[in-house]
Structure formats: structure tokens, C-alpha cells
Design a protein that fits this description.
The protein is α/β, with parallel strands linked by helices. The chain contains 17 helices and 20 strands. The chain has three domains: about 200 residues, Aldehyde Dehydrogenase, Chain A, domain 1, CATH 3.40.605; about 190 residues, 3-Layer(aba) Sandwich (Aldehyde Dehydrogenase, Chain A, domain 2), CATH 3.40.309; about 50 residues, no CATH class. Bound molecules: nicotinamide-adenine-dinucleotide.
């Protein structure tokens, strides 16, 4: 009866943004089915969690081999479904996950092994303690479309290494790649049902957040949705890691290595057609080098090859959707209307793909911080450049944003670059490069301000996927001195201990003399208690 009244979910179709062709479809679920899927994963997870860390590590290496064996097909699918140039499918998505799986396998067993906690405190000397890193159960991963492989893949793999099961909700623009993530783990021999995907729109993601047995959410996406996910998690007292929008600044100092700085700006601003949370969205260049830097970036942007992402020499593919294209075009239009100068780039037709959302790399100068282009996330191939009088001004402007994901400083003076890095807001600051460390799983990833909460890579990413449990042992030779009964001696002994152990050196002897009778009484009581038990 129940089956007859259930609504059948229509499949989710996926289209090639370049050609508009239908690529395939995946089955979707109704939001009310999600909790049941989480429950199913929760049934499988305890078996996986029993495996020793070294064995889980072996599975991680096997998953890496599955990717290697299928590298070409995966790269092609990614280029077709998301529009990223084929080389970037390798450099920014696939190879980093292979490397990540190996790092997780190599470093995970040490990071997650029980960790002894020393007791320097004299009164706790007999105790033994350790941290035990225990799986949370089922972790929910909600993914964006811009890095539909590497972002969720890393989070899923970290969660699995910690002994969790995972329910993954891929972005609805890139469901085929999302399915391939589940497939890799199944193919590598992970228990069937340990990693499940749920496809659908925002309501399916919302249902995952609400599912009772989903212990924690890793969400990557927009600030607006991330905020609502954070609120929903808080209402359920559930943890979440939120990886949200960015507005990365690049600071170009007078001694920047100019050729690399220009090339780095072109890559950091235009890779993945600018649809990168940590893409360069603002460049601040000091007066002294402004002219050659701007000239270099404009010339370089004009030379980038826009076209079919499947062609090996394409550098800029289409935007993922017409909607994303319109957002970018509107922001650039707004800046130009407010007085900015568009030095190159804009909407462009690519022969053979008429009507596809191609946007040639754009460079804007004459921008001000009042313009929306300098305050809102562009998420497209546009680099606005501002000339500044000093590095102090650049630091002030860089930090003048509601976002703080990451930033870069370009200078050959390492100490100066790192000093500036310490003053910039954000979760990562690079000197003479940008973004790359998302591809190095041992580094942390995450932001400050509206760019998010928590960290999703590195040892801190592991710690986000576990219940950090303190387990303490007491040999029970005697009653603890702070247990009942209470009397004046205990208080006096405490006062003098505080001074003797932590006070000024000059006061220690006096405190010991003054507290000796009380310390003696408390000590005798403990010894008597211990002897009585022998
Ligand atoms: P989005 O917020 O629209 O969607 C992200 C995911 O959330 C999708 O899977 C979507 O289906 C799901 N979702 C939508 N509504 C939901 C709800 N109410 N509850 C739960 N899930 C819901 O973001 P997007 O357009 O896919 O991605 C682009 C954004 O992601 C940009 O702002 C970008 O900066 C950000 N991003 C951040 C990082 C980072 O590491 N900080 C990385 C990549 C992308």
C-alpha cells in the first residue's frame, strides 16, 4: 500500500555546459528518504570501524590505484560535465586526490593512534591518560559543483580513514562525478553501503543535515546556504565544517618576481574559469611595479586559449552554467558603469559551441572598494586590479572584506612576505604562489569570517572527523586528596601548594614553611589511607 502512494523521484539529468548535450542521469531520492539511507550506512559503519588503522590505510591506497586505473575516463567525464580544461582535471582534481589518499594512508595511522598525555603536575603523577580518536558514526558531505571531485573526495576519504561511514550529496550540476566518488570506494573493496550518495536539490542536502544519525556535516558552498546549514546543525547540537565563499586578495610588492607574479595572477585568477573559492578576485599592486604588472596581466589574459575543455591546449573552458555566466557579466557591467575600465575579456562565442556560456578572461583597472566587484564573490574569470601607494595600504584593503579564505603576497623578501602573511586575514596565505595547497592534503584548508568555520584538510581535518575522547587511568592506591572529607587543612595545603608550585620564586620558601603543617596533615591522611589498604 505504502509503495503505491510513494512519489517516484524523477532522475537527475546532467548536461555538458559546452555543448548542451545530455551526458547521463542518476536516480534521485525524496528528502524524506535520506534519514533511512543514513540509518543504513550506520548499520555498516561499525564493521568498518573495527578494522585496525593500518588496514584502513591499505584500502586508501587501493582507492588511489582505482583512480589511477581510470584516470583518463575520469578526466574526460569531469571536463564534459563541469567544463574544466582537461589538464586542470588532472592538476587540480585527480592527481591531488591520489596524493591525498596516499598521505591519508601514510600519516593517518600516526595521527589517529592513541596519544599519551603526560602529567607534569606532581599531584597527578600516578595517573595515566590518553586521547582516543573515535569515529563519529555517519558523516554527511555536501559538495559544490566547482571542484566536484577533489573537494568532496578529500573529505570523504578523511572521514573513512577515521572509521566513519559517509553519505555524500553531490551538487546537482555535477551528479555523474559525484557517483564516481562512491564507485571508486566500492571498486577498491570498501564495504558495500559504507559510502552512499543522495542526489537531488537543496532539500535533499537539508534532509541530510536534519537526519538524526548523521553525526556531522561537511558543507562546501555559498555563504547563504552555509549559514542555514550552520543554524540547522546548531539547533540539533551537531558539529559542522563550513567551507564557504572567498574573495582572495593578491598583494604585489615592489620586489615581486614580476614574470612569475604575472603568470601566477593569470593562473590564480583564471584557472577553472575563475570558479574557484580561493581564486584571485582582487589584486593590489604597489605604484612602483603597477604598470608592468598590469600590462603583463592584460597581455597574458588576452593570450589564454578559450575553448573546448576536452582539447588539451584549452586554458579556459565555459562557465558551468548560463546562470553563473550572467552573475559574472552583471558584476563586470556594474563595475564599468561605476567607472572601472575593462582592459580585456568578456562574453565570447567559441566556434562550434555557439550559445555556450564562454567568458574570456577579463581584467579591470580603475576599480574602487565601493564597487560590488571588489566586495562580492565574482566566481568567474575576472581580475580587478587596484594600484596602491604602499604595502600598508594593500594590507588594509586586503583585510577590508567580509570574506577571509586565503590570500597571497608576492615578494622575493621571504621574511617580509611572511610578516605580511601573519597580518592578513584568512586560513591560508601563500608567498609567491596561490591556491596550490588545496592539493596538498597535509596542509589545512578553511577560512575565517564569512569564508567558513573549521578545517577540512591536514591533521586538523582528521580531528574534525572524530570524537576526541580523553581516557584516564587512576591506579587507586589511595583516596584522592581533593575527595571528601573536607576540612581547613585541605584549603591551607592548597593555598601553599599554589604558591610553592606556581608562585614567585622569592615567596616559595615562606609559603612552604607556612603551609607545612597543613601539607603534612593532608599527606599523612593519604599515606594512612594507602597503608590501610595494603
Ligand atoms: P551552493 O551553496 O549553491 O550549493 C552547495 C551544495 O549545497 C549543493 O550540493 C547544493 O545542492 C546544496 N544545498 C543547497 N541548498 C541546501 C540546503 N538548504 N541545505 C543543505 N544543502 C543545500 O554552492 P555552489 O553554487 O554549489 O558552490 C559555489 C560556492 O561554493 C561559492 O560560493 C564558492 O566560493 C563556494 N566554495 C567554497 C569552497 C571552500 O573551500 N571554501 C570551495 C568550493 C566552493
Amino acid at each position: 500500500m505504502e509503495a503505491a502512494t510513494r512519489t517516484e523521484s524523477p532522475p537527475l539529468e546532467s548536461f555538458n555546459p559546452t555543448s548542451g548535450a545530455l551526458l547521463g542521469s542518476v536516480p534521485t531520492v525524496q528528502p524524506e528518504e535520506v534519514a533511512g539511507i543514513v540509518d543504513d550506512v550506520a548499520e555498516v559503519q561499525p564493521f568498518w570501524a573495527q578494522l585496525p588503522l593500518a588496514d584502513r590505510a591499505r584500502y586508501m591506497r587501493r582507492a588511489a590505484q582505482v583512480i589511477i586505473d581510470d584516470l583518463e575516463q575520469l578526466g574526460e567525464l569531469m571536463a564534459r560535465e563541469q567544463g574544466k580544461p582537461r589538464n586542470e582535471c588532472y592538476t587540480m582534481e585527480l592527481i591531488p586526490t591520489i596524493d591525498a589518499l596516499h598521505w591519508i594512508a601514510d600519516a593517518g595511522p600516526d595521527i589517529l593512534a592513541p596519544e599519551r598525555i603526560p602529567y607534569p603536575q606532581v599531584f597527578w603523577k600516578a595517573k595515566r591518560s590518553r586521547f582516543s580518536y573515535e569515529p563519529l558514526g555517519v558523516v554527511g558531505v555536501i559538495a559544490p559543483w566547482n571542484y566536484p571531485w577533489s573537494i568532496p573526495f578529500g573529505e570523504v576519504a578523511l572521514a573513512l580513514m577515521c572509521g566513519n561511514g559517509v553519505v555524500l550529496k553531490p551538487a546537482s550540476l555535477t551528479p555523474l562525478i559525484g557517483e564516481r566518488i562512491r564507485w571508486v570506494f566500492e571498486r577498491a573493496g570498501f564495504p558495500l553501503g559504507l559510502v552512499r550518495t543522495v542526489h537531488g536539490g537543496g532539500a535533499v542536502g537539508g534532509a541530510l543535515v536534519e537526519a538524526e544519525r548523521c553525526a556531522k556535516i561537511f558543507f562546501t558552498g555559498s555563504v547563504e546556504v552555509g549559514r542555514s546549514v550552520g543554524v540547522a546543525c546548531a539547533e540539533r547540537l551537531k558539529g559542522c565544517v563550513l567551507e564557504l565563499g572567498g574573495k582572495d586578495p593578491m598583494l604585489v610588492l615592489a620586489d615581486a618576481p614580476l614574470e612569475n607574479t604575472v603568470a601566477g595572477c593569470l593562473w590564480g585568477g583564471f584557472a577553472n574559469a575563475g570558479q574557484t573559492c580561493s581564486g584571485i578576485e582582487r589584486a593590489y599592486v604597489v605604484d612602483e611595479v603597477a604598470e608592468p604588472f598590469i600590462e603583463g596581466v592584460v597581455r597574458g589574459a588576452q593570450a589564454l586559449r578559450v575553448g573546448d575543455p576536452l582539447a588539451w591546449d584549452t586554458e579556459i573552458g565555459p562557465m558551468v552554467s548560463r546562470e553563473q555566466f550572467e552573475i559574472v557579466a552583471e558584476l563586470v557591467h556594474d563595475a564599468v558603469a561605476a567607472g572601472a575600465e575593462l582592459r580585456c575579456g568578456g562574453p565570447v562565442e567559441v566556434s562550434g559551441f555557439e550559445g555556450a556560456p564562454f567568458y574570456a578572461p577579463a581584467v579591470l583597472t580603475g576599480v574602487t572598494h565601493e564597487m560590488r566587484i571588489m566586495r562580492e564573490e565574482i566566481f568567474g574569470p575576472v581580475v580587478p586590479i587596484m594600484t596602491v601607494a604602499s604595502e600598508e595600504e594593500a594590507i588594509g584593503l586586503a583585510n577590508d572584506s567580509r570574506f577571509a579564505l586565503s590570500a597571497s603576497v608576492w615578494t622575493l623578501d621571504r621574511a617580509r612576505g611572511e610578516r605580511i602573511a601573519e597580518r592578513l586575514d584568512g586560513g591560508s596565505v601563500w608567498v609567491n604562489d596561490h591556491s596550490y595547497s588545496h592539493g596538498a592534503m597535509q596542509c589545512t584548508w578553511g577560512g575565517e569570517k564569512e569564508s567558513g568555520v573549521g578545517r577540512s584538510h591536514g591533521k586538523f581535518g582528521f580531528y574534525e572527523c572524530v570524537n576526541i575522547k580523553h581516557i584516564g587511568w587512576e591506579p587507586s592506591w589511595a583516596k584522592q586528596f581533593w575527595w571528601h572529607p573536607y576540612d581547613r587543612s585541605l584549603g591551607q595545603a592548597m593555598e601553599s601548594s599554589a604558591r610553592v608550585l606556581y608562585g614567585r620564586d622569592d615567596d616559595k620558601l615562606g609559603a612552604l614553611r607556612k603551609g607545612a603543617p597543613a601539607l603534612g596533615r593532608v599527606g599523612r591522611r593519604l599515606v594512612k589511607d594507602a597503608l590501610r589498604r595494603l
